Amino acid sequence: MSRPSTFVPARTTLRKKPTSRGITDFLQNHDKMAALLPSITRMMTLQADCAATLPAMFAGCAVLQFESNQLVLSTPNAALASKLKQQLPKLQDALLQRGWQVNAIRLKVQVGRPRDNPLPQKQLRLPDPAVSALTQLETTLENTPRNATLLSAIHALANRPRS
Q1: Whole-angstrom Cα distance, residue 65 to residue 59?
Q2: Which of 18, 31, 85, 145 has a Cα at 20 to 30 A from 132?
Q3: 49-74: per-residue pLDDT in tens?
Q4: pLDDT at 111
């Protein structure tokens, strides 16, 4: 006779955000991924050198590929791509001085996905004198069908939650 299996709930523990050291350890210990580590390190160094050369412009950009002395960069929009295009000779010279053999730089516009967290909308707070003036206006206006929409808007403004 077999014993009935019991349900064991999964552990729900909070995990720490992965660190670069933890990721590096994982890659080094994984047979197939360990071969990628030198390329990843090289790309990260190249990304840092590009960002150091053009810090204001390169914040939204990324190094996509560096093969056969040709560097491919991604930009989030066409406007930044056109500005960056003007700075490519400066970037290429700086990378050559840092030891990178870059013969050509290409740009690819890659629009990113929309933000997961929308920015919170700013709620304006009415000062107390404004609220009392709206309340007074609401009581003094004649309650007619013509003023109904105006009265409801004034009522909504005067009774809006205040934080």
Answers
A1: 17
A2: 145
A3: 999 999 888 888 889 999 999 999 99
A4: 80
